[in-house]
Each structure stands twice: as structure tokens, then as C-alpha cells.
Amino acid sequence: MEYHPSTYHSHSVVRRSSKLQILVTDAERLYKRLTQLKNKDNSPQRHRRDGFLGLFGHKVDLLDHYEKTLGDIADNVRIEQSFMAGKEVPAAFVSFKSRFGAAIALHLQEGINPTHWITERAPEPHDVYWPFFSVTFIRRWVSKMVAYVACNAITILFLIPVALVQGLTHLDQLESMFPALRSILRLAVVSQVITGYLPILILQVFLSFVPALMIMLSSLQGYISWSQIQKSACTKVLWFTIWNIFFANVLSGSALYRLNYLLEPKEFPRVLAEAVPAQASFFMAYVVAFGWTNIASELFQLIPLFYNYVNRFFGGDCGDDFEAPTIPYHKEVPRILFFGLLGVTYFILAPLILPFLLIYFCLGYIIYRNQLLYVYVPKFETRGEFWPTVHNYTIFSLILMHIIVIGIFGMKKLPIASGLILPLSIATLLFNEYCQKRFFPIFQGYPVECLIKKDREDQNNPNMSEFYDKLNKAYNDPALMPIKYSGRPRSRRTPLLSSESQNSARESQSQDMLV
Amino acid sequence: MEYHPSTYHSHSVVRRSSKLQILVTDAERLYKRLTQLKNKDNSPQRHRRDGFLGLFGHKVDLLDHYEKTLGDIADNVRIEQSFMAGKEVPAAFVSFKSRFGAAIALHLQEGINPTHWITERAPEPHDVYWPFFSVTFIRRWVSKMVAYVACNAITILFLIPVALVQGLTHLDQLESMFPALRSILRLAVVSQVITGYLPILILQVFLSFVPALMIMLSSLQGYISWSQIQKSACTKVLWFTIWNIFFANVLSGSALYRLNYLLEPKEFPRVLAEAVPAQASFFMAYVVAFGWTNIASELFQLIPLFYNYVNRFFGGDCGDDFEAPTIPYHKEVPRILFFGLLGVTYFILAPLILPFLLIYFCLGYIIYRNQLLYVYVPKFETRGEFWPTVHNYTIFSLILMHIIVIGIFGMKKLPIASGLILPLSIATLLFNEYCQKRFFPIFQGYPVECLIKKDREDQNNPNMSEFYDKLNKAYNDPALMPIKYSGRPRSRRTPLLSSESQNSARESQSQDMLV
Fold first, then answer.
1. How confident is the model at residue B174 (pLDDT cuts 50, 70, 90)?
2. TM spans, by residue (chains A, B) (predicted)?
3. How far is CA A206 from CA A27, A158, A203, A217, in A?
4. pLDDT value for B427
5. How far apart are CA A432 and CA A423, in angstroms?
6. Mutation site for B-interface testing, chosen from A143, A449, A451 by largest number of B Cβ within 10 Å
7. Which end of chain A, N or C, is more open, meaning fewer C-beta atoms within 10 Å of its C-beta?
């Protein structure tokens, strides 16, 4: 109100609510369980109700126990909430009367010390990640550094399982290590499975844990929204994939000691030119075994299906509250881009990879289109913010291809040919530089031209006051909402709200809460 | 007025005036010459008047000739100026009613295409560099790239004279190259001069052309103010100095082939550890011969004195219009910083360099303080913008020192000691990172806090309307000012204006001009 008096509209202060959040999560989980139990109890058309409850035999006890616990938690939540007034964190969501006003506050440094007063674009309300509001600039910075170091350490240490897997493709080494297995390994089927398919399978098992790990690291990094966390995790997974699948497989092929050469830039093209063509067959198998399988499993959603089936069978969780899945960008984007990298780097060395990739991309286009339109629910608006990642990665692929080609021409004693590649690399880098200037500012903030145009349209919009009312309540911490489920006997009479209507009810009552 | 209606104040469009500028410069030069001649003519107390004019013998002819030429040029200027209305360039100086309003327009991207509409902070009026206003984004970008490539090429090619100079310190090589000189080179005095002093002298002669060259390159780079050009040239000279004085001398000491090792990062500390201590005596001599001499010549201003004397003797330019010199930051800042680098890198290898440096810095403090206060006229307000350069350079010096120390400990077979240096480097880089976050935003723009405070002070200031009037006229192209010297006989009657009063007169008449 001091610096932006004409455009300031409202604000909601963030409160330290980590303790409360745990309680509310507990309460929600219990409430869900209770609702399920009650549903089974009250609706006689359920099939497995009697049998299932008969199996446990103490239905009433369980209900009572749950209700009692829920009541205790709800009381705790109310007590905690009443103490919230003092737990204000030096952070707030500030809303402005116009987009232009918000852009001014966002782009100009507010205080004299740039670390005291940081402005960031507010994420969509359901996209907010709350833990990092209570944290000072220095702690955020330190967590970022720690996450960065941890990410690099994981990326590099992951080489160990990759190297072991790659050892499998060289059966002769394995034979000399385990002489007892020699007779088994000599079988054609076994050796084909071990050298052709097993390495990829083991790699895939290891790799399936990586996106979750990177999301965890990114969430430690001080971002205030899930979308930012996912974007950052996407970049992490991307470099992880390049390093651990491309470089590790290429260079550790027969000799891990070659990594040493990576520290000598002059040797780099030669080493790559020697190692990359040798791994062409591995990557072709990789495209078929990993790429095609993934596309297929994406369509059939085998893992969620299996999980749901198991859950239904053992837990009795009938899937009434089945949530539509959201697309895990941090898994899918790096995967698709990596196949692009394979295509770009191998198309001159082993053109046979191209038809496989073409099938992958065609299938991918059809299937992902279907998934995005009819299966996944968008959790947040990406606003095309993955574009810079894709662009940088494509430029990187091209430059890597040039380096490999320079190395190959060098090996074939064609210095003029490798010299002629240089202008291509320079042109690529200049194109990249131009794109950075021309297109990347779009991701920093909207131009005044658009803001003013939209603001003027809004001025004539009769619904604006309604929108402002909504804005006041949009950014309240979900943990501070008045708790709706008391768990006491009278709550049995209250209608069971679906999660949607519950959310809207929350919004309407939140203003009383914050007083 | 469309996007910033409440804060827009006025603007002045830039016009394509390069042709006019040449004419005006010609006219000004002629006018100055004419004034000098007339002064000599009209003031009988001048000493050398008769003798000087007697020497040439056609005083009246010269005056008439000058006046005629000046009159022609003035007519041409007026004709050119009348055609100016159509030569508008898509660039303008826009002034705003408040600092806050100007900051908004500066920091927010205006148009949808970020390359069409670029906002930059306007330099001080006399600091404007006009040529790059007529240039599109792409041409500016291309010139920047070209300047960058040229600068790198010059920096690297300069190694050749440096290598030749360094050859002088190894007399044995010289002897074998020129056997005829052997008897002369064997003389103690000659060999001492050649090995000790001559290399530094030759280096200095070559180096004295570099700042001017870098200023030229920077002025091609698309900056719109002299201060930016000087800042950019300062950075260029800095890296030039590091590369061509420090690295070239250290590594080419006895073997230029060592440069090859620079491409292998692993070998880097070892090569430096071997080469740096070997050049300690050269750099000690450098501090004395180059540093101390520079400080002294700075005090006595020998070159301007000599230049002035020669000018006065031959040209008869009596120095009535002697301009106070401005400090050439792009020469002085890199020089002082380089001695800092020498101190940081050599203080553990050759501590004997420290007293010499101490004397240099003490003398420098006293002398530069005197020069800045009483000799130099500040041409523009630097606003501390050289601080980031100094900071980055200091961090670079520290890291370089760490690398050398790691190499030396490695050579002495003390792996633990060199390992213990690593945390120091990491801490230095973290400190640098923190400073970047904490202090560098200050150079991007002023915070809202300060802007609003100053704006509120201004609102109560009764002189603001006067300031706004001045603002309207401040950014007019000097080439478009009505020409004051007609050179026709009647102009003899007009009082001869000093350059100050002439400037203010220009300002008062400029408004008629632009109609």
C-alpha cells in the first residue's frame, strides 16, 4: 500500500502451518476411511459389505474408534488454528487491481536489500507448495546449493549400477569373473537374454526410481509451486539421462577408464568418435525394448491398473474417490527428448535406428495425444514453459552430433571435412543466441502491450467485482480452513460432501477463519 | 502515451544525422580556428601576433577564406537541417513525470516481440553516443558478435609480439639466432638492458595502443553512451592484460608450446606451478619499471605536457580552449587491478614482490586521489558501475592463486595440502555467488523504495516545472542545433561566446529548430 497505492488490491499473509498441516492430513485420511466404512455400512446394495466386515468382526468398535480419534484431531486442529494469528511468516500473497500493476510489483526490486524482499509470480492456488514460505533468502539459497550438489552426486554415482549392467553385455568378462556359470552362459537363449534384454531391464528398474528422487531434490530447492518443482526435476532427469544412459553406455562400453579422457577437451571428439558407433546396436535395442514398451504401457496404464486391482482385492478401497491421473512431465519429457538425441547423434552412424525411432514418434504422437485429451487431467497450466528446456536440449544434441562427426572425420583422416563442420556449429550457436534474445523473454513476463490490452478488456467486464471477491480467498492455506468433519455423533447426520463441493464450501467460509 | 498515460511526460525523436554531424564538426573546427585568428588580430597584447602572421604574410586572405568556407558550410548545415523532419529514426528519448514511471517503462518488456521495442536507461545528455540509434536489433547484435570475435582475435594474436619480447629475456636464444650480435650481447651493460628493461619497454609501447583499440571495438558494439563504451572497453583491456601479460609471460617464458597444455584442464595446475615461480623476477621488475613509472608519469602528466608544448611551438594553438582532461577508466582500472592480481598470485611464491606493490599502491592512493580531486574533470557519473568488474576480477585472482597453490603442493608431493585448498576455492565461489545475488541487482536498477521516496520529495519541490522544461530540451541531437556561426561579415559584430554560454544558447533556441 506504501509503494503501489493505486494498484494494490488485497493480500493474504502466509502462516507457519507445518504442524497443523500434518494434523489436517491425518484428519483427512481418517475422515476418508470413516466415510468409506459408513458407506459400506449404510448402503445395503454393496456386494462385499457383510462378507468383508464379517471377516473383521468388530465393525462398531472400528467406527467408534475412528470417530473418537477424528474428534481428538479436530479439536487439536481447532486449538492450533486459534494460535495461528501469532505464527505469521514474513510472506504474503498480494493481489493487484490490474495485471499491469502486478507486473510492476513483480519486475521491480522493492527494497534496498534485494535479499530481504523477493517478489515472485504467484502460482495457481492449488499449485502452491507451502513449506518454503517460512524460509529466509539465505536458507533457500543454501538448500538450493545442497540440492544441486546432491543431484550431481547422484548423477555421477549412478554410473556404478550402469557400469555393472554394461558388464553384462560383455559375457566373456562375466565368464572369467564367475567360472561356475560358464555352462549356463554358453546356452544361446541365456546369452541372448543376458546380453540383449537383461541390461535394459535392470537399467529401467534403476531408472524408475530416478524421477521420484529428482522431484524430492527439487522440492528441497526452495520453489513455491509444484509446477516449478516439476520443471526443475525435468531438467535434472534430462541431464541425468544424458549422462547415465548416453555417455555412461557409450564410454563404459568396454572401458570405464575412458572417462578419464573426458577431462581433456582435445581428446573428446576422438574418444566419442571411437565409442559412439560401437554402441549403435545397444541403442537400437534400447529404442525397441524401452521406447516401444513405454509407449505401449502408457496406453494400457498397466501399473496403475495393477495397483488398483491389488488395492481393491486386499484393502477394500472401492475406488469411489478415484482421482484422474496427471501427466508426470518430469518423466515423459526427458524420455521423449532422449530419443530425439539418439536420432540426431546416430542418424549418420547407424541410419537403421531411424525407422525404429520413426515408429516410436508416430506411436507416441497418437498415444500421447489421446492420453492428454482423454486420460490425464492437467494439474497446472504449463504456459509452454518446457519450451526453453526442449530448445536447449535440441541445441545440445546438435552440437554433440557435430563433435562426434568432427571426431569421425578426424579418425578417417579428412581434416578439411572436419574443418567444414565448424561453421555449422558456430551457426547453430548463433541461432541459439538469437532465440535466447528473441523468444526467451516471453518466459520472464508478459509484455506491457498484452497486459494493458487485457486490463482494458477487464475494465468493461461486469464480472470483475465477483472475481476480486474470489481473489481475496483464493490463496488461503488449506490447513487453516475450518475443519468440516468433527467425527462426533452429530456428524453422522451431515451430508457426505464430495471433494469438489467440500472445496467450494471451504472457500466460502475461509474469510471468517482469517479474522 | 498509450501504455504509460499517467507517467509519460515528453519525448524527443532521434534523427539520422551522421552527414550533418560531419558538417557541424567541420564548421566547429573552422570556427575555432577563425576565433583564434581574430583574437590574435584584435588583441594587441598578444606577443607573437605580428611575427606569426608576418611569417605567413597573407593574414586577410586567410581570414576571408575561412569565413567564406564557414559560410558555405553553415548554409549546407541549414539546408540539411531543414530536411531533417523526414529522417526520423525509430528511436526516441522519452521522459517520464516520475522516477517510478521511468523505472516501470525501463524494466517491463513493452512490445510482444522483444527485439522490436527495446528500452534502455538514457545516459546523461552529454554522454550520448549517437551512431547506434538508427540501427536495428539484428544489426546491433551482429556488430556485437563481430566486435566480440575481433576482440578475441586481437587478444590472441597479440601473443606474437609478446613472445618476441619474451625471447629477449633469453639471450642465449637470441645469440643463436643472430650470431653477428654475439660480441655486443656479451657486454654486461647491453645484456642487462636487453634482458631487464627492453622487454618491458617494448611491451609498454605495444600496450599503449590497446586501450584505444578496445575503445574502438566497444564503440562498434552498439552502446548508446560513452560511459557504457568505456566500461565495456575496461573489461576488454582487463582480460587482454591477464592473457597477454600474465599468461603469455608465464607460459611462453621458455616454451610457447606449453600453451598446448592449457587445453588440458587436468594439467593446468601443474603447468602453472612450474611456470609461475620462474617468472617472479620478471614481474618484480615489471612492478618497478612499469607500475612506478606509470604512477610518476600520471602525476607529472608528461605526455599531455609534451603534446601541448609541441602544439604550441609548431601550430600556434595558444591553448585558450584548453580542456580539462577526463580520467581514462579503461586504461587505469585494468592497470591497477593487474597489480592486485600480481600481488595475490605471487605473495606466497615470491613475497619480495609485496614491498614493491605496497609502495605502488600507497603512491597510487595519494596520487590518484590528488588527480581525481584537482586534475581530472568527471565526464560522466560512473555510479560505481566498475564495482562488478573489480569484484569479478578479484574472485578470479583468488581462484587463480588457489590453482597455482594446488599445483605447487602437487609438485611437492603433498596431496593432502592441495586437497585442503579445495574447500577454500569452494567457499570463494560461494561467496561470489552470494555477492551476485546480494549486490549485483543494485546495478540493474534502483529499488522501488528509493524511487518512491525520491519522487515524493520531488512532488514538494517548487523547482520541478523548471526541471521539466529543461528535460524537454536536454536530449536534442547537438547536430540539429541552429548553427551559431555564419562566418558572414555581420558575424564579426556578434560577441564571441565561450563554449559554455554557447551551449546554453543552443538549448534555448533548440525548440524553434525542432518545429
1. low
2. 145-164, 184-217, 237-257, 277-295, 336-368, 390-409, 416-434
3. 35, 9, 5, 17
4. 94
5. 14
6. A449
7. C
For A449, the closest of B110, B448, B452 (CB atoms) is B110
Query: pLDDT tens-digit profile of B138-155?
Result: 888 888 889 999 999 988
Which candidate, A211, A207, A218, places its Cα nearest to that of A237?
A211
Closest chain A residue to B145 measured between Cα atoms? A430
Q: Which residues of A touch B2 (CB under 8 A)?
A: 452
Helices B210-219, B198-208: inter-axial angle, 10-degree rounding: 20
3-state secondary structure of A88: strand
In chain B, what are the domain boundaries?
A: 8-134+448-514, 230-443
Closest C-alpha among A287, A384, A298 to residue A341: A287
Measured between alpha carbons, how far is A386 from A199 in angstroms, rounded to an integer?
Answer: 31
- Residue A269 distance to chain B (closest CA, Å): 14
Q: Which amino acid is at B497?
A: L
pLDDT of A435-476, one tens digit each? 998 888 888 888 888 888 888 888 888 888 888 888 877 787
Nine-digit cell at B436?
551476485
Q: Does A115 touch chain B (CB under 8 A)?
A: yes
Spatial distance between the Cα atoms of B496 and B312, rounded to a whole number of angstroms? 22
What Å distances lie between residue B449 and A16, A108, A138, B99, B456, CA to CA?
27, 10, 22, 11, 11
Point out the residue among A109, A263, A434 whose CB comes nearest to the CB of B448: A109
* A20's grid cell: 497443523
The mean pLDDT of chain A is 77
Top residue of B115, B117, B448 to mutate, by most chain A CBs within 10 Å, is B448
The string over B273-311, giving b where at least 16 C-beta atoms fall within 10 Å of a residue's C-beta and e elsewhere, is bbbbbebbebbbbbbebbbeebbeebeeeeeeeeeeeee
Is the CB of residue B262 less than 8 Å away from at least one CB of chain A?
no
Q: What is the pLDDT of residues A216-273, one digit of tens each?
A: 898 888 888 888 899 999 999 999 988 888 887 777 654 455 556 656 667 778 878 8
Section A377-397 average pLDDT: 89
Q: pLDDT tens digits for B305-364?
A: 888 788 777 765 555 556 778 888 888 899 899 999 999 999 888 888 899 999 999 999
At residue A494, does pLDDT exceed 70? no
CB within 8 A of A395, min separation 6: which ones? A428, A429, A431, A432
Classify B222 in phi/psi space as left (phi over 0), alpha (psi -120 to 50) or beta.
left
> What pTM did the predictor assign?
0.78
